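Open question from group meeting: does this chain pack into something compact, or does most of it stay loose? Before anyone orders reagents, we agreed to write out a predicted structure and look at it together. Recording both the input and the output here so the notebook holds the full record.
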Amino acid sequence: MTDFESEAHLQKKEPLQEEHLQGAAGLGPDLVYRFSSRAASTTLQVKSLSPIALAYVGDAVYELYIRTQLLWPPQRPQAYHNAVVGQVRAEQQAAYLGQLQPFLSELEQDMVRRGRNAAPKRQRRVNADLYQQATSFETLIGYLYLTDQPRLFELLGQLGITPHSAGVI
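Structure tokens returned:
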């Protein structure tokens, strides 16, 4: 596919063919559209991913979300790092999952259960139950990122993460 062809797809908002998606190694201007368009149309495929794969994506998405929430006011890199580490720890993720439980749909609750039951070998610094909850949280984040980003940001907004609440002054 040429750049002109991919630009035409972007302007028309037409989904790209599977072979074009598989061959897309660069970060062209329409990568986000191609990804979200494909993800929205393949919810069934996303459900077939292992909970660990969803948690893997969820971990990255959640950390990026936290990093962007803590950019203002400007701080030294160490202050950013300390604030982010405080928010992405298993203990904090488990607490956030508890906050979100009343707002979750049945499907989202199912994703949480799948994540809890698939937690990999736990880290030594946290107990198994806490680690399962954190993995469940990441699984939910990964699933929603791939299937329903507006819902993801709605739920993340429920957490009230601000620079002040994260320890950034």
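Observations to bring back to the group:
The CA atoms of residues 127 and 166 lie 23 Å apart.
Residues 1-35 have pLDDT under 50 and may be disordered.
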